[in-house]
Every structure is written in C-alpha cells, then in structure tokens.
Amino acid sequence: MSSPETQVVHMYAAREEIYPREASGRYARLRWLFVWLTQLAFYCTPWLQWNGRQALLFDLGARKFYIFGLVLWPQDFIYLAALLIICAYLLFLATAVAGRVWCGFACPQTVYTEIFLWIERKIEGKRSARIALDRQPPSASKFAKKSAKHLAWGAVALWTGFTFVGYFTPIKHLAGEVLTLSFGPWEWFWVVFYSFATYGNAGWMREQVCKYMCPYARFQSSMFDRDTLIITYAGERGEPRMPLSKKAAGKGGDCIDCSMCVQVCPTGIDIRNGLQYECIGCAACVDACNGVMDKVGLPRGLIRYSTERAMTMHYTPTQIRRRTLRPRVQIYAAILALIVAAVGTALYLRVPLKLDVIRDRGAMGREVEDGMIENVYRLQIMNTSEQAQTYRIRVSGIPTLAQVTPELVRVEATDTKAHPIRLRTAHGAAHPGSNKIAVELTSVDDPSLHVKEDAVFIVPR
Ligand code: SF4
Ligand code: SF4
Q1: Nearest CA to ligand 2 atom 7
Q2: Ligand 2 mutation pick, 24, 271, 287, 306, max ligand atoms within 8 A of CB
Q3: pLDDT tens-digit series, residues 37-47
Q4: Taking residues 437-450, what's their average pLDDT?
Q5: CA separation for the pair 187, 295 (Å, rounded)
Q6: Helix (H) or strand (E) holding 288
C-alpha cells in the first residue's frame, strides 16, 4: 500500500503587482470628470466663507457643526443621521440600478488611485516602461524616478491630510500653523494619519483595499438582481476567441484575444471569465475593447454594460432601459424621495432657538414676602441663529404667575446662555403640590423665533 501523499496548502498568497494600462474612452473621461468634481469640492470647500466664518466646519471642540447657513448643535444630530441615511440609501439605489458605479467612478479609493497612477505614469512612463523599470537592477536613474514618484505621492497625501483636518479645525488657522509647524497634538495625529492612509491606500494597496478591506464590497452583491447593470462580456459573440492572424475565412468569434481588457483592469481580472467579485465596475475594459473593435472594424460592445437577464433574453437597449425602472427601483426611489422631503421640511420649519427649563432642585417652592410663593429656574437658551438676539420671556399656566427677574435676555449669535429666573404667584392661586406652567421665549426682532417649554411650579403643602 502506498503512503498518502502530503499536500501543502498555502493559506496566504503573495500579492502580484498589477500594472494597469491607461484606458482612454468615454468611461475614462467620465471617471476623470468625477475625479475633478470630487477633488475640487474636497480641496476648495474648507476655504469657502459664510457670514465671516468657515462655511463648512465640524467644530468638535465647540460641539457645533456649521453647514453654510445651518448651525447644528448636539441636539440636532438627528439631521446628520438623516443625511447619512439619505447618502446610504442613494448608494443602495444606485447599486440596484447600475451595480458598482460608485466604486468605479466616485469612491475615494478609485479617485486617489487614479491620481496616483497618473503621477506614476508621468514619472515612470507607460505600462511597459513601469514593468521594465521594476525588473531593472538598482541604478541611480531608477532610484531618482522612484524617489520623485514617492515625493509627489507624499505631497498629494499631505495636502489631502491637511485639507481633511481643515474640515474640523478652521483651515485658515491651520494654514498659519503650517508655516511654523505648530499644530496641536490632535491636528498632528490626524494630518499624519490621513496622509499616511492616502499614501498607503492609493499608492501601495490599491486593488487590495477593494478586494479585502472595503466593507461595502462585502455586501453590495445582495443589492444586485438579474436586471442590475453590470460589466459583461458577450461570450456568444466573442467566442471562440483567437488572434486576428488566425481569423481567416471568418472563423472564430469577435474577440481577438489581444488581452487589452485584462491589461487595463485595475484589479487584474479577466472579465471574459464572467462577473467576478473583484470587478469594481470601472468600465476600463469597455473602453479598451471598444478601442480594439474600432481598430479591427467590428461593432463596439463586445464588453459592455448590460444585465444578466438582458444577456440571456437578448434584450435591446430600450428593453434594458425599461427594466431599469422596474417596480423595485421605483419603490426605492419613492422611499428616498419621501425621506428627502421629510428632512427638507423639518429643516425648513426648524426654529433656530432652543430652550431647556431646569427648576432649581436645591430650592423647593418657598413662601416669600407678601405671602407669595416663589420658584427658581435656570433657562438654558441656545441661540442657533447667526445673529445676536434679544428674547422676551413670558410665563403662563397659573393666573397670577409673574417674573421677579427682567423679561428680556440677550444671547449672542450661535451662543448658549444659562439665565436664572424667579417666578412668583399669589398664595391660593395654585393648588398645593406641582402645577403645570409654560415658559415662552420670543425674539424681539424676529417674532417667528419663538419656543415654548413646559415646566412645573411647586406650591408647598
Ligand atoms: S479587449 Fe476585447 S478583443 Fe481584446 S481580448 Fe479583451 S474582449 Fe477580446
Ligand atoms: S473587469 Fe473591467 S470593469 Fe471590472 S474592474 Fe476590471 S476593468 Fe474595471
């Protein structure tokens, strides 16, 4: 009896370097459009001013978020949560309709990889030159090219890290600190951390982030169905693939096996083997194959956006478009529209004034001169508008209830103030124990700024 053979299974496969060839075409232009739009928005927004302050600033220290004309306080974080829900819902809807369009065109990982690849191409050359450079033995010119590339990557990464922190610390102040390198410890940490993440993810890890680290990549396939647009290879038309030189007498499919679709793929897969989880839907292979088809005089679309159902049922583009608006998508869109409308209405009706009425627990209701009963309160007034306001305080709920303290209180713009008030009522006007009252604040200059809070007035038994 022969002894069983020992088979060694390696649980770890070393990464194979991918050298994506530059794709050109409609989808590559679209991706660059998104690179410009997203990066202009990211790098420029912190520099915009609004009412003499940074237009978009998440001031964690002061626990206030400034979003253009909107100032959100911790009590308003429901709006931020709603905004995140809307973004997530938009992403889910886009995925149900067109698969990984976010991944392929607008995801920061894709966008920064595109920028870093552009730098790499400018310094090290095209794909073949980069492969040759990496195979070369160490030399001065290789060292110079690699150093220049990493310096350029580092500069973009640092600028990105600095801009990111500029959303949380006033960026003009931060820019002043750059000159003297006098960042605070947290600023240092986040600038370095975010720069390092950009440099590492876009420069070194690239497709590994999409394949192994991205949580969205793990569950987005659950949003796919047979009518979701994906990048597909028309095997019926393309196979059997064979080089152009062997396609004599009309034999073979339209694929000339040039491997251009594989060379441009940033994740290094061959889409002709069917849809794979590594495919980020960037459509670089579509551009590459369309270019090849143009050259050999065959119709475009051997690799194209299509759906699983369209491929098996041979749908026309019109039928595909019609299926895009299937009931599932319409329901998603209707729910999204409802959420957006609800949040928009809530924001529109939001009064930029908040009031908490806190009764002084140390001093229960007590009898003072003239037989009056007095209760003491602290009003926590939050002026969330961008103008200083003077508010008139009114109280109601007990017939003779009146304030001993002044009726007017001023609160600076986007400020909060603790304001003590004393209320009195005649003996006998309220029953012993707790009595429901209301405290109202109305802005003297703008009566639409008005809030009312319930409180209790205690009469000793
Ligand atoms: S680019 Fe088109 S023709 Fe070339 S190998 Fe890929 S599918 Fe075939
Ligand atoms: S297979 Fe095509 S669409 Fe998918 S990642 Fe590769 S190049 Fe992009």
Answers
A1: 265
A2: 271
A3: 999 999 999 99
A4: 94
A5: 53
A6: helix 284-296
How distant is the alpha carbon of residue 233 from its chain centre? 32
SS3 content of the chain, % helix, strand, coil (to 5): 50, 20, 35
AA letter at 349:
L
- Provide the terminal-to-terminal Cα distance of the chain, rounded to the nearest Å: 101
pLDDT value, residue 3: 53
Distance between CA atoms of residues 355 and 369, nearest Å: 30
Cα torsion at 191, 192, 197, 198 (round to 10°)?
60
Distance 298 CA to ligand 1 centre (A): 12
Q: Residue 195: how many CB atoms within 10 A of its CB?
A: 21
SS (H, E, C) 334-379: HHHHHHHHHHHHHHHHCCCEEEEEEECCCCCCEECHHHCEEEEEEE
Q: In whole angstroms, give the CA distance from residue 161 to residue 149.
A: 18
Question: What 3-state class would DSSP assign to 251?
Answer: coil
Give the HSE-up count for residue 393: Cα atoms under 13 Å, Cβ half-sphere: 26
For the record, the structure tokens of 199 come out as 């440099």
Do 174 and 168 touch, CB atoms closer than 8 A?
A: no
- Is-contact 204 213, C-beta < 8 A? no
CA distance 319 to 56: 44
Q: Which two tokens stand for residue 147?
A: 């150093």
The whole-number average pLDDT for the span 415-426 is 94
Length of the chain: 461
